[in-house]
Amino acid sequence: MELQQYGELLARLDQQQETVFRRDAEGVLDGSAAIESQAALIEEARRERELCRADVARSIGASADASFEYLLPLLPEDYRPLIRALVEENNELLTRVRARSRQNHLLLSRTVELMQRLMGGLFAAKGGSTYSGDGALLGARATSRRIYEAVG
Question: Which structural domains are found in the chain, ordered by start?
Fold first, then answer.
């Protein structure tokens, strides 16, 4: 189950990258929400895996907190290659998810930085006046805010 959930997360991270490249702001927001939901499913799958690992450990007389590395030689020989392959595949997929997540983080951070610079240039431009809702002229301090402060 955990492998499936990591695969789903990797697919969602790929989709997020595509929406950023297409400059689809709404798609990025939707994708971020989907990624958060998928992360919750992964946490549940991890908890389930840990419960299964602890059950296996107890069933062979080992401590419930014994690692797979410790448990592997204690398992029946027929199961060892399968368990080893599962653990390795899970670790490889986790590595890919972390790498893609870092890529997306950098991509999104750079996008926000560029937007802040663009908006700062627009709001700091000379010659334009900014007025409050009641028509009063606002000072320069109000026009030099960062985009995230202006948005909310």
Answer: 2-126 (1.20.58)
**What pTM does this model have?**
0.71
- What is the 3-class SS of 91-107, one letter each residue? HHHHHHHHHHHHHHHHH
Vertex 86: Cα angle to 98 and 32 (nearest 5): 30
**The token pair that represents 92 in the structure block:** 């490889």
Residues 119, 114: Cα–Cα separation, whole Å: 9
Question: Residue type for 100, please?
Answer: R
Tell me which residue of 62, 58, 56 sits closest to 82, measured CA to CA. 56
Tokens of 114: 């560029």
**What tens digit of pLDDT does each residue of 41-73 get?**
999 999 999 999 999 999 999 999 999 999 999
